[in-house]
Amino acid sequence: MTADRPLRADARRNRAKVLEAAETVFATRGTGASTEEIAQAAGVGIGTVFRHFPTKEALLEAVFLSRLDRLAAQLRAAADQPDPGRAFREQIALAVDASPAKNAIADALAAAGVELDAVKAGVGTGVRDALDLLLRRAQSAGAVRADLDVPTVMALLIGASYGVEAAGDDRGRRALVINVLLDGMSAG
Amino acid sequence: MTADRPLRADARRNRAKVLEAAETVFATRGTGASTEEIAQAAGVGIGTVFRHFPTKEALLEAVFLSRLDRLAAQLRAAADQPDPGRAFREQIALAVDASPAKNAIADALAAAGVELDAVKAGVGTGVRDALDLLLRRAQSAGAVRADLDVPTVMALLIGASYGVEAAGDDRGRRALVINVLLDGMSAG
DNA sequence: CTAGAATCGGAGTCGTGACTCCGATTCCCT
DNA sequence: AGGGAATCGGAGTCACGACTCCGATTCTAG
């Protein structure tokens, strides 16, 4: 219930710098990276990091949500492509390829006891809705199994992300993993 | 190059107790569980834990390898079933259902900078070989896509483990995830 | 049974990293 | 420009957890 007065210009700028730095640092050094490391990467003092994100957990959550936001936007943008089946396939492949870092963050949050469902219920709704639209259209077009629902597709996406990660650097193997997934999801 | 003299009887017993305790504690509390917690669960002093496993990392590795060992044994046991396709399917489903804990351990090891490939090269070979046999037989029988190889199947297995985990407690949803995977892996 | 070696237990050390505090600095309204 | 409020920086605090050390205990060879 804080009366969200607008932040001072420099404060807003710093907040953004921290968030961005945190994203890259978490992605490269892993979620175990120290807050100090992030502060340095952002060119900011530790105190500043903690003022904007009172907890490391809060910082992780913010980074996670920002990623979900971008994903949702991307999914929405694909919703009006002409070929629903193709749109679905493309977005799945894109989402999977882009998500290795999200996984680690999600794990860290879960390990910290954060209710991921609650988090997702907030901004994650955007992802859910966008995915819902893509999925329905693809199913109506007969391109995707009818027995799949959004939560299951999300579970598959998460799994595929890890699978791709486990496939290592081999481009062909990564593609094969995604291919298997898409085949499994397709109708018939 | 230590001259591995056989351990004293009580020492061997304690080692086993610690390993077992570590496995359950890591599974329930996560890999972040403190060494003290494990010592307590094993009914043993911290010193004892560190004598047998000089590092927390070493302990994680030992637990991981013991799991891989069991998995390999299970896979080998399934290698002479009459229907190769069915054997493959069943084992995949079993392996996936049993592995959520392994994932977390593997992640922790990776985060600690352990070369997972090196680890797998040691005992993991058992898994690789057993899986290789199952896979070849299933492919020869025309039950599984010919373009899959063992590393890819392992990546898929890892991914599926996470996918199942993400599917939550819903029994049907978990089954659906595995079903999609198996469909994707099947021939034609 | 007994000596001596191997093992155990757990208090204490040490390093690390999250988080706090307050003087210094920067911003923005008039 | 000027002053007061909002922010910043980063040294310092504190808790926690991995790992060490050594007297006490338990095993086993003879």
UniProtKB/TrEMBL annotation, chains A, B:
<keyword id="KW-0238">DNA-binding</keyword>
<feature type="domain" description="HTH tetR-type">
    <location>
        <begin position="12"/>
        <end position="71"/>
    </location>
</feature>
<keyword id="KW-0804">Transcription</keyword>
<dbReference type="InterPro" id="IPR009057">
    <property type="entry name" value="Homeodomain-like_sf"/>
</dbReference>
<dbReference type="InterPro" id="IPR050109">
    <property type="entry name" value="HTH-type_TetR-like_transc_reg"/>
</dbReference>
<feature type="DNA-binding region" description="H-T-H motif">
    <location>
        <begin position="34"/>
        <end position="53"/>
    </location>
</feature>
<dbReference type="InterPro" id="IPR049445">
    <property type="entry name" value="TetR_SbtR-like_C"/>
</dbReference>
<dbReference type="Pfam" id="PF21597">
    <property type="entry name" value="TetR_C_43"/>
</dbReference>
<dbReference type="InterPro" id="IPR001647">
    <property type="entry name" value="HTH_TetR"/>
</dbReference>
<keyword id="KW-0805">Transcription regulation</keyword>
<dbReference type="InterPro" id="IPR036271">
    <property type="entry name" value="Tet_transcr_reg_TetR-rel_C_sf"/>
</dbReference>
<dbReference type="Pfam" id="PF00440">
    <property type="entry name" value="TetR_N"/>
</dbReference>
<protein>
    <submittedName>
        <fullName>TetR/AcrR family transcriptional regulator</fullName>
    </submittedName>
</protein>
